[in-house]
Design goal:
Length: about 220
């Protein structure tokens, strides 16, 4: 007798497991270093790290360094974000909680890791629109939902989908991980995960006594 098929995992649960692991290292507004010197031309990364920002000031997108996405880039990024993390009955989509703004800030920052991701993401978005036009005659954001999902499936498969797909697979992996970082550090994303940290307690009772006893520990502090 063959063993029963394993239970199928909900798609959103699978996405959480894949993406949430990378959600710790994230760029937060107002907690980055201001780029110093003259403002570079649009499309070029800022040079230098500069001084610390004024933590009492509410910075707007583009205040810390010039942003990178064109209108076309934002449309493609929005469509791809919402394929990776769509809205469901429990939580909103990635684009609706500001993940596209996060991505634009991330690839515009002058730090070494961001500069590497910038090249991957910008070349990937350009490839995405070109590939979509070859396949369906429309840019990615304007293509039919089935065509967009089929293209994403091929990117996820990488070289198994055909020659020349390795770079597309690297882009998709990088973009997917950045979307997860952005989404799961928003209030909506943390609620979706069930994360309840950073909540003040009226009092702390200490660890459960039965757990302390079972581990052979003590909750007493010895000086």
């Amino acid at each position: 007798m063959n063993p029963p098929d394993p239970p199928r995992m909900d798609r959103r649960v699978a996405i959480k497991w894949i993406l949430a692991a990378g959600a710790g290292a994230v760029l937060m507004k107002g907690r980055v270093l201001r780029a110093a010197g003259t403002t570079p031309p649009a499309g070029q990364a800022a040079a230098g790290y500069g001084t610390d920002p004024d933590i009492m000031k509410a910075y707007k997108p583009g205040d810390l360094w010039p942003l990178t996405f064109s209108d076309g880039d934002r449309r493609a990024a929005t469509a791809l974000c919402d394929i990776i993390i769509p809205a469901d009955a429990q939580s909103p989509s990635a684009s609706s909680v500001g993940v596209v703004d996060f991505l634009d800030e991330w690839v515009s920052a002058p730090y070494p890791d961001n500069v590497v991701d910038r090249k991957t993401v910008m070349e990937g978005l350009a490839w995405l629109d070109a590939a979509s036009q070859r396949r369906s005659g429309a840019r990615f954001a304007d293509a039919a939902s089935a065509d967009r999902e089929a293209l994403c499936a091929d990117m996820a498969r990488g070289k198994a989908a055909g020659p020349g797909m390795e770079a597309a697979a690297r882009f998709f992996k990088t973009f997917r991980n950045l979307v997860g970082r952005g989404y799961y550090t928003t209030p909506a994303g943390m609620k979706d995960l069930g994360y309840v940290g950073n909540v003040p307690l009226a009092r702390f009772e200490g660890p459960p006594a039965d757990l302390v006893a079972r581990l052979g520990l003590t909750d007493e502090v010895k000086w």
